[in-house]
Specification:
The structure holds two protein chains of two kinds. Chain A is an alpha/beta fold. Chain A has three domains: 22-118 and 219-275, Periplasmic binding protein-like II (D-Maltodextrin-Binding Protein, domain 2); 123-215, Periplasmic binding protein-like II (D-Maltodextrin-Binding Protein, domain 2, 3-Layer(aba) Sandwich); 280-488, MetI-like (MetI-like fold), CATH 1.10.3720.10. Chain A is built from 18 helices and ten strands. In chain A, the strands form two sheets. Chain A has an eight-stranded mixed sheet with strand order 4-1-5-10-6-9-7-8, sandwiched between helices. In chain A, helix 3 runs antiparallel to helix 10 (244-251), helix 11 (283-317) runs antiparallel to helix 12 (320-334) and helix 16 (400-430) packs antiparallel against helix 18. Chain A is elongated and about 95 Å long. In chain B, a hairpin with a 2-residue loop joins strand 1 (5-14) and strand 2 (17-27). Chain B has a domain at 5-29 and 41-193: P-loop containing nucleotide triphosphate hydrolases (Rossmann fold). Chain B has helices at residues 43-50, 78-87, 103-115, 119-132, 148-160, 178-192, 205-208, 246-250, and strands at residues 5-14, 17-27, 32-36, 58-63, 66-69, 88-91, 166-170, 197-201, 214-218, 224-229. Chain B is an alpha/beta fold. Chain B is globular, with a radius of gyration of 18 Å. The chains are: A alpha/beta, B alpha/beta. The A-B interface holds A 386, 388-389, 391-400, 402, 406-407, 410-411, 487-491 and B 51, 53, 74-75, 78, 82, 85-86, 89-90, 92, 94, 96-100, 109-110, 113-115, 142-144, 155, 158-159, 161-162.
Chain lengths: 491, 258
């Protein structure tokens, strides 16, 4: 029994490893397992694929219906594999699943990396603004405005091409329409299905102007899987000609006249033409990201030092109430993830009427988070100075404050400095988290550049070098400062 | 003439135990009192209460014209407590010199930061004090490069920089070897001649026999077990060599009166 359980475990491990490492015709694997695995991002949301709120175990959406129909035609089970939308193409190439299908647009850049099935939907971009906003009526009116969209989308490319639009990038549509309602951005520019599903029902928002641009959603495949692609294409063609595709889109209110053009694609199968991108063009962008990273780090650290010191003094010298407040603040901040705090500060506080811009929210979130750590470092440093020092200071008439500033802190400094520097370096790297609240700093720039060029490794090295070039001088400076303070040894 | 220090009904609690209970004592100006008693009965705590380094729960202490009483708050009554500490310097068993400051700065920081004396004047006076304790050449050194005896002499100079009328010594020699003990005794004798009031808690009364004018022994809860006025011994200013042995000196002392 024990043995067979072990063998089962071992074999499944092997299968797993083999499954992921497997390059080569995906159709073989699909046939063998009877399972067609498709990568998709449930957080990307409706109406593509999302959690059924009446039955949270189930995924629904027009792409779920589409994949089930395709699976039925191919005689296999379609199985969604959850992944961040940004990662769809890299994960597909790595072999995490057989196809990527989640509103994936056909672009020349992507064609260089992967192949596409026939398109299954023709979408456009929709401008959405607040109900009371009459300034924007068409794409040209977006000039000079802050416009929200998602990373690595055709919509973002269109905005970038225009050149004079301030683009704010979000992880998903829900945050975009939320920030639009709050007035943090002037307009949203996203694929028509999202605008229809999210903005349509909101009374405070309106979709304006004719949808612009035209793009195709298709399933992405590895280039080594032409058989699976042919099978998919055949299934799609059949679904279209039988009217099943229309039925699915009607169900989700997505059918448009435009979709009839799909038939034109089902006969052509040309899928070549790669656009190689030079990584050099990303370097100015990375440097710009680095400057944002530095700005956030320095401001957040200043806040962390100030607020940390206040918390520490309150805890050591305050009355009962202050001590409790400080203790509670430190424990709550320390005991919850920074990412969560950033979300709450940026997306949560507006509910209470506190609307901060992304940069301020980033500095505040990171600064307060590190204030909690700093306050504990200061406290330990202060407590490491023998009590006799404070008593001696008092005996020559110093007040508690004079003793703290003239006697205790100068001697605590050496104890405080190394962990404090360590914290600053950690803070500096944690600034990469603020991309979730739309701040474009170094890691975010890297992420976007890598996703559009797929040069994950090369750009990764450049980015890492930039981080290192910024943090190492800090470490050296700290060591020097420490050496200068040698005489402050506490005996 | 009213006494310089007057202690009335002093009571000090640690957690729920009274370690000083109903203590009444007074000291005249110029008195050099040695306080002894077994370890841990609260002699040091008593000294700390006198300059309110340790707050107490009962009674009052008057030093000169300044009066403090139980329950005073360091922040609220800062002026009174400050005035008290100006009257009474304090010398610690473990010296407690400020490690980040030079010897000179250790002495000047009080006058400069607390009393607003100009750095120039403070330094001049500090140097005079250093000369008197025999450490003129050590002004720019850091405390850790000094011997224990030298450190304690700096600590005495620091306590004297505020020109107090009295000094409280908390076991000033117990961390020192015999030769260093002698250095401290000489400094104490020197300043005793200036008419300073001194209260010295020590386990080694023999060392200080020559300057002491009064010997007090504390029992449990700091009750006064015995008290003796000592005749001033007219010994030469520099002690004989064998004085460095405390056992030999003990023979000179009034025998412990219990």
């Amino acid at each position: 029994m024990k043995f067979s359980a072990f063998r089962f475990f071992f074999l499944s491990l092997l299968t797993l490893v083999a499954g992921f490492a497997h390059a080569g015709e995906a159709w073989d694997r699909v046939m063998k397992t009877g399972e067609l695995r498709y990568g998709t991002d449930p957080a990307g949301g409706a109406p593509y694929l999302f959690q059924d709120k009446h039955n949270p175990d189930r995924m629904i959406g027009f792409e779920v219906d589409l994949m089930e129909a395709i699976g039925k035609r191919l005689g296999v089970t379609a199985k969604p594999v959850a992944i961040d939308w940004d990662q769809l193409v890299p994960a597909l190439m790595r072999g995490d699943f057989d196809i990527a299908l989640n509103g994936l647009e056909v672009t020349d850049e992507r064609k260089g990396m992967i192949s596409f099935s026939h398109p299954y939907y023709i979408f456009s971009q929709q401008i959405t603004v607040r109900q009371d906003d009459a300034r924007v009526k068409k794409f040209e009116d977006l000039r000079g405005r802050r416009v929200g969209t998602m990373a690595a989308t055709l919509a973002k490319d269109m905005l970038e091409e225009h050149g004079q639009i301030k683009i704010v990038t979000y992880p998903g549509p829900i945050e975009i329409y939320g920030d639009l309602e709050l007035g943090r951005i002037d307009a949203a520019f996203l694929d028509t299905p999202m605008a229809a599903f999210y903005a349509g029902p909101k009374p405070s928002l309106k979709n304006v102007g004719e949808p612009v641009g035209e793009g195709l959603y298709a399933a992405g495949l590895r280039k080594d899987s032409p058989i699976l692609r042919d099978k998919l294409n055949a299934a799609l063609k059949k679904l279209y000609s039988l009217g099943e595709l229309k039925k699915i889109y009607d169900k989700w209110d997505l059918w448009t006249q435009n979709q009839e053009k799909l038939s034109g694609f089902f006969n052509d199968s040309a899928q070549t033409g790669a656009a190689e991108v030079s990584i050099l063009k990303f370097i100015p962008l990375l440097l710009q990201g680095a400057s944002v990273t530095i700005a956030i780090s320095v401001l957040a650290m200043a806040l962390a030092v100030g607020a940390g010191f206040a918390l520490c003094v309150a805890k050591l010298y305050g009355n009962k109430f202050l001590r409790f407040l400080s203790h509670a603040a430190v424990e709550i901040i320390r005991g919850t993830p920074l990412l969560l705090q950033l979300y709450v500060i940026y997306y949560g506080l507006p509910t209470l009427g506190i609307k901060l811009n992304a940069f301020v929210a980033a500095v505040l979130g990171i600064g307060l988070n590190y204030a909690a750590c700093e306050s504990e470092i200061y406290r330990a440093g202060i407590l490491s100075v023998p009590k006799g020092q404070d008593e001696a200071a008092r005996s020559i008439g110093m007040s508690a404050r004079q003793s703290l500033f003239h006697i205790i802190l100068p001697q605590a400094f050496r104890v405080i400095l190394p962990p404090s520097t360590n914290d600053f370096i950690a803070l500096f790297k944690d600034t990469s988290l603020v991309s979730v609240i739309t701040v474009v700093e170094l890691t975010k720039v890297y992420n976007q550049a890598a996703l559009s060029s797929l040069h994950f490794l090369e750009l990764g090295f450049i980015t890492a070098a930039l981080y290192f070039a910024m943090s190492y001088p800090l470490a050296i400076w700290s060591r020097r400062l420490e050496a200068n303070r040698q005489h402050a040894i506490i005996y | 003439m009213p006494s310089f220090i007057e202690v009335r009904d002093l009571g000090k609690k640690f957690n729920s135990t009274w370690i000083i209970k109903n203590l009444n004592l007074s000291f005249d100006e110029g008195e050099i009192a040695i306080i002894q008693g077994s370890s841990g009965i609260g002699k040091s705590t008593f000294l700390r209460c006198l300059c309110y380094l340790t707050p107490f729960e009962k009674g009052r202490v008057r030093v000169g014209s300044i009066e403090i009483e139980a329950g005073m708050n360091e922040r609220k009554h800062h002026q009174t407590i400050l005035a008290l500490r100006q009257q009474l310097g304090f010398v610690f068993q473990s010296f407690n010199l400020f490690g980040h400051l030079t010897v000179l700065q250790n002495i000047t920081i009080g006058p400069i930061k607390v009393w607003g004396v100009t750095p120039h004047k403070a330094e001049r006076e500090a140097k005079a004090l250093l000369r008197r304790v025999g450490l003129k050449n050590k002004a720019e050194e850091h405390p850790r490069s000094l011997s224990g005896g030298q450190q304690q002499r700096v600590a005495i100079a620091r306590a004297l920089a505020l020109r107090p009328k009295g000094i409280l010594f908390d076991e000033p020699t117990s961390n020192l070897d015999p030769a260093m003990k002698q250095e401290i005794v000489e400094v104490i004798e020197d300043f005793a001649n200036d008419g300073l009031t001194m209260l010295i808690v020590t386990h080694e009364p023999a060392f200080l026999r020559r300057v002491a004018t009064r010997l007090i022994e504390f029992g449990s809860q700091c009750s006064v077990v015995s008290e003796n006025a000592l005749p001033k011994l007219l010994l030469p200013a520099s002690p004989p060599a064998d004085n460095q042995n405390p056992d030999a000196l003990a023979a000179l002392t009034v025998s412990s009166p219990n």
